[in-house]
Amino acid sequence: GNSVTQMEGPVTLSEEAFLTINCTYTATGYPSLFWYVQYPGEGLQLLLKATKADDKGSNKGFEATYRKETTSFHLEKGSVQVSDSAVYFCALIPFSGNTPLVFGKGTRLSVIA
Amino acid sequence: GAGVSQSPSNKVTEKGKDVELRCDPISGHTALYWYRQSLGQGLEFLIYFQGNSAPDKSGLPSDRFSAERTGGSVSTLTIQRTQQEDSAVYLCASSFAGTTNEKLFFGSGTQLSVL
């Protein structure tokens, strides 16, 4: 079946630290991959996506590269800010496109000044 | 409206009671999704509506759960005879056409607490 596994949180970092949140997936075929973010008190919103192998999604200083050989889509940011504190969800849509987004369990990030 | 609207934002109910949760999608969006967010469990897909097609109900956890979408717009998720394990945040999302790779817009959710 299709599934997403991401590192368990919470993750606590100091401002300007480097961030990596690991995400690996299991899927038939070649899925599209996403990172969604949920800021405190707000709904989930799309952060970035990649639709094929070796694609890099990027937004707001965050990046993730679709690695088919390791079935991974790790989220990275070079210098986090307090405003990045949120819950981050890795997700996929299978190649068939007939199944809605499959989410990981989420990783809570807290950035302290 | 400007975004996906859900009501109520919080609902406390007693075990065994029925509850209805409402979702107003973004105007013009034909696809509507319900997810459940439980502590430590991530987002669990419940049901998906796309236009006039039969809904994908494959994620509904039991026959106590049902959903409808009237007029292709507003959706209501109904939980009958609520149980304590139903306590969670219920999230609604919509998208323009429900196609692959499309961006979903989420509401802020309804926090359901079953006592």
Task: Assign an overall shape of chain B.
Answer: globular
Which bin fits the share of residues in helices of chain B? under 10%
Chains forming the largest contact: A-B, 22 and 23 residues
Count of strand segments of chain A? 12
Order of helices and strands of chain A: EEEEEEEEEEEE
Structural class of chain A: mainly beta
Number of strands of chain B: 10
Mean pLDDT of chain A: 93
Largest sheet of chain A: 6 strands, mixed
Main pleated sheet of chain B: 6 strands, mixed
In percent, how much strand structure appears in the residues of chain A? over 45%
Low-confidence parts of chain A: none
Radius of gyration of chain B: 13 Å
* Distance between the ends of chain A: 41 Å
- Distance between the amino and carboxyl termini of chain B: 33 Å
- Which H/E pattern describes the elements of chain B? EEEEEEEEEE
Radius of gyration of chain A: 13 Å
Question: What is the number of helical segments of chain A per DSSP (H or I, 4+ residues)?
Answer: 0
What structural keywords apply?
A: mainly beta, six-stranded mixed sheet, four-stranded antiparallel sheet, globular, B: 115 residues, mainly beta
Structural features, described:
The complex is a heterodimer of chains A (113) and B (115). Chain A has strands spanning 3-6, 11-14, 19-21, 23-26, 32-38, 45-50, 56-59, 62-65, 75-77, 86-93, 102-103, 107-112. Chain A is globular. Chain A is 0% helix and 49% strand. In chain A, strands 2, 5, 6, 10, 11 and 12 form a 6-stranded mixed beta sheet that branches. In chain A, strands 3-9-8-7 form a 4-stranded antiparallel beta sheet, with no helix packed on it. Chain A has 113 residues and is mainly β. Chain A is built from no helices and 12 strands. Chain A starts with a strand and ends with a strand. Chain B is mainly beta. In chain B, strands 2, 4, 5, 8, 9 and 10 form a 6-stranded mixed beta sheet that branches. In chain B, strands 1-3-7-6 form a 4-stranded antiparallel beta sheet, with no helix packed on it. The radius of gyration of chain B is 13 Å and the shape is globular. Classes of the chains: A mainly beta (113), B mainly beta (115).
